[in-house]
Amino acid sequence: MKNPEYFITPIVMATVMSFVMSGLITTINLGLDQSFLANWMGAWKISLPIAITGVLLTRPLVERISRLITRNVFNRRSNGIG
């Protein structure tokens, strides 16, 4: 098994991002009223497993794209090109 951090980091990131995004979108769509917290938690309950699944499934592709970008952008700069 890989280092546990390999899985924990994206899960924590997905949790925080889905929490913030569901809160923001709930606020924009429904406003701040008496049912805001219940609506937010309802939205977060749906978005959290989707976010975690999405992050874990796309992580290999995202890491590959990140390596390509980093290699192409930063290697040129370090070689005095660009």
Question: Care to describe what's here?
Answer:
The chain has 82 residues and is mostly helical. It has two helices and no strands. Helix 1 packs across helix 2 (36-78).
Average pLDDT reading: 91
Terminal Cα span: 40 Å
DSSP strand tally: 0
H/E series = HH
How does the major sheet shape up?
Answer: none
| Number of distinct helices | 2
Helical proportion? over 70%
The radius of gyration over CA amounts to 18 Å
Residue share in β-strands: under 5%
Give the low-pLDDT segments.
Answer: none
Based on the model shown, name its key terms.
elongated; mainly alpha; 82 residues
Q: What is the structure about, briefly put?
A:
This protein has 82 residues and is mainly α. It is built from 2 helices and no strands.
SSE diagram, text form:
Blueprint: H1 5-30, H2 36-78
